[in-house]
Every structure is written in structure tokens, then in C-alpha cells.
Design brief:
heterodimer; A: alpha+beta; CBS-domain; three-stranded antiparallel β-sheet; 9 helices; 40% helix; 23% strand; B: 350 residues; 10 strands
Chain lengths: 229, 350
Amino acid sequence: MFVSERMAKNLITAGPDMTIFEAKTIMAEKGFRHLPIVDSAGKLIGIVSDRDIRAAMPSTLLKKADYEITLAKIMNFPVEDIMTKDPLTIYAYYTIQDTLLVMQKKKVGALPVIDQEGYLKGLLSVRDLLRSFVSVLNIDEPGCLLCIVVNAKEKTGQMKKIVDIITEERIALGSILVARAWDNNKRAIFPYLLTNNIINVKKKLIANGFELIDPMQWYLDHQQPQKAE
Amino acid sequence: MLGWMHCDRVQVQIRDVGLGRSRKIVIEKQENLMKRTGFVYDERYLLHDTGIYHPESPERLKTIFKWLEDSGMLSQLTRIEATKANQRWIETVHNIHYIMRFDEACISGLNEFEHPDNGICRDSYDTAFLAVGGVLKAIDAVMKGEIDNAFCAVRPPGHHAEADKPMGFCYFNNVAIGARYLQKEYGIERVGIIDFDVHHGNGTQHIFDRDPSVFYYSIHEHPSFAYPGTGREFEAGLGEGEGYTVNSPVLPGRGDDEYKRLIMQDLVPAFKKFNPEFILLSAGFDAHESDMMSGTNLSTEGYDFISEVIMNLVNRCSGGRVVSVLEGGYNLDILPLLVENHIRFLADLK
């Protein structure tokens, strides 16, 4: 999963001399929250977020007349004055995993994607990440979730066994999640199966010695130690 | 008054009892006359062969039929012969190209239709027509006053079937077609659909998403865990149909109490307000604790509760008019009992 597959490519950008008024209007009309600022050659020089614009607005506590006078003064300033200069950027060949970690650590809502020369290539927002997660988990396709508990101390190869059984039943796999931080001796494996026909695969898993539990049971067990603290 | 009361509907006396701030309403049935309940079943429903080890098997209906015969229940019901539906009724819901694709898949001897879940054989197409036809005949009989209500032991089931896509063992959406039939053939304006199969009826919901004349209520296992992954609380209809779809997802393992809470909170007030003139049921018995298809843990008594609440609604809103259509239910040891219990409520034999 690479940034290039998930980033928005048809971007609306602005030059540094666009007024705050124009920028605010465009963002409101198009419904996006980040406006990359580029120079005349197309190189990225900054980014304006809806929060930057809000911060520049006069206080709504001002009297109406005062508010409008102040607003009129502000609206004609160029976006250059409020943009984040030299913002954090990523490259199109970064993975979605890289981006997740960057966004989590740096607490940003969107990252401009540039090439080696600094030209703007795209923008990856939290919304794009959400979309890529829905797609990678395959939860927009019909299916059901199993919860299999395996003993972590047992010899390796249990995942293979599980996948083999699912494959033998000719069931397409949407995704598999593994929960590790639960019980030191146990792992919970959650295969998302793209089928309604789960009785046979459940029976086969049980016959092969796997413990199937209700996913809610896992959740409740998981919650217990935290409540005790 | 002594003896049977000779009227079609049970008379209900409502008495208000003042109990401080809360008021308790006591409903007493004065006399109980068994309802005339129709039963749709046809041996040709067994011809739809989904393949070896498929849970949606002909055995399901065979077991139900034999059980009802042995228990004597069958003799108390009005048998309704199924006939193949006229395709024009199926076209009120399904895309003509989809119907043709289904026909072709069966004719050419394929053993699945567009997904490995949907096992088919050469007879599946005709059987699906017969399933729809059975439901329409039951509707006819109720509308003509020949019976009060009916249970349709049909297969293939229908509530996952989309306008142009088979899903989850379903090909034609029997209940959705029934709703359209009621509107077009009998001028019924408001149809209420209650779907208590453990899976969300994605097909039915999507078909009536934008339609305020058909209210779709579904209670099912939460979509993060169970097929088909739709039916969240925030799916509540679109456009003009907003507010005419209500979903009650049940987290795994929650069982009877959660079902009771959600039904009283979500279904009952919504249907009282919508006041449907006819109620159709997507009756699935796979939420039972012994059915490996799901994890909702509903008990046999929990199913009785659902049937009872539904019949109260039916008597109150739709003048007793209800047609119940079989959807899922895969544990053959419990399915026939659950069906019998459900029919007891329809026939007012409890």
C-alpha cells in the first residue's frame, strides 16, 4: 500500500498572494480542509488549513459592526501570512504505514506529497487513510468475522492451518487481524470471511482443535484488567 | 358471553389502571377464536439444490413439513398451493437483465451464481419463481379474506437478494416483491416489513431505501461480526425514505434481553406511528443459540417473545393481516420447533 495509490491527485492549489477571503471561499465551496500553496513553478511552499483560517478570523464576540470592520481588514491579507511554511511532506513512494505513523506522531490532518525536486504531486488526508482502511479490511464487502483463540506457546504454523482450512472451504478472505496484547499465552485471530456460509468452516476449525469464541467474549476479557486498575 | 365469539378478530378490552405516575394497561382477551392461518409449501421447493454440505438445503423444508405433520399442526392450517409467479411481479423489484442472467446460469448448468455462496442447479430458476409465487398466493388469500394470515415455508430465501445481484443464498427477494404486489395489485399504501433473520436484509433495505411507503425494520447480529456487514443504526433510509428504515444491531452473545429491549425501543413505537396496512415478515430462525450461523444467543422463548410482539402489532395496525416468509434457520434440530411455535402465534394457538 503506497501513498501514490491513495493520495488525492486533482488538487486545487493557491499561490501565496491569494487573499484569505478567496481561500476561505474555495475551501468552503469544495468542502476540503487543506489548501496547498505553490509558487508559480508549482513547487510547494506552504499549506493552509481551515484551522489557520479560523485562527485569523476576528472574534465572534465582537459587536457586529466591529466584527465586520475587522473582517474586512483581514480578508485582503495574502494567505502567505497565515500558511504553515515548509510543511511536513511525504513522497509518493512512502507506504500508508509510514504515513499513519507520521500523522500519529506529528498530529497533522493532511500531508502534501512532493517529488524529489519539491514539486507538489498530491495530498494525503486522514480521510484518505480512513478510506484505505475500509478497503484493506474489506469491510465494505459482505462477510462475517470469526474469532479464533490460539495458544501462543504452541509451535508455529497455526495461522497456516487456519488459512488452509478457509481455503479448502473455498472461502475468500477479506482480511485477518491478530490481537497480541491480551494474554501472554494467547493470541486472538480474527479472519473476516467474504461469505455467509460459515457453518462448515467453523466445524472444521473446531475439529482441528481450534477454539472459536464469540468476538464479544474476547472484547470483554480484554477489558477486564483495565477495569481492575 | 359463553362459547365462541363468531367474529373474525379477537375482541380486546383495554382497561386503564391508575398506578401513581405510571399507567398500566391490562389487555384481556375475552374469547379466543383460532385464526385461519394459511400454509404455503410445495414439494418442488426441494428441487433447488445448493450443492453438497450447503446449509441452505432442501432438508430444511422437509424437516419443517414432517414436524408439522407429525405434531398435528398441519391439519389445523389451510394449505395453499404454490404456482410460479408472473415475471412482471418479479420485475417490480429485479432488473430484467439480472433475471435473465439467473436463467442463463441455471440453463447452462452452472453450480454457483456470481458467488460461491449461491449454489444453484438447473431447477433453481423455476424454484425461485415458485417461492415468489407462493408468497403472492398467500397475499391473495389474505386480501380476499379466505384466511387471516399465512406462513410461507419457501426456498430459496430472499432478503439478501439485491435488485441486480444474488447474495447470501438469495436470488429473488420474495418479501420485497410481496410488498410491491400488495401496493400495485391491491392498492395498499403502507407496507411494514419486519425482518428477524439473524442477518441484515440488505436487499430489502436497499430496494426500499428511498421509499416512504414501505417501512423496513430489521433486528440482526451486529454487522461488524455477521454477514452481510450492513444494517448499522445510522442506516435509516435515504431522501424521501429517510426515517422509514430502522436497524437494531445486536452484539454477539447478548441474547434475549437485548432483543427484548431493542424490539420494544425501536420496532414497536415506529410501527405504531407508521401504522402499516399490511405486515410482511422475513422470518429467519438462525438467531437461535444452537444455530452455528450466528452468535446472538437468542433462546426458544426469545423467539416466542418476537412472535408475540409482532402479533400484537399486527392486530393493532394492520387489522390482523400478516404474511410470514421463511428466510434462514439452519440447525435442523431446532428449526422445525421454532417454526411451529411461530405459527402457533400466527394461528393464535398459544
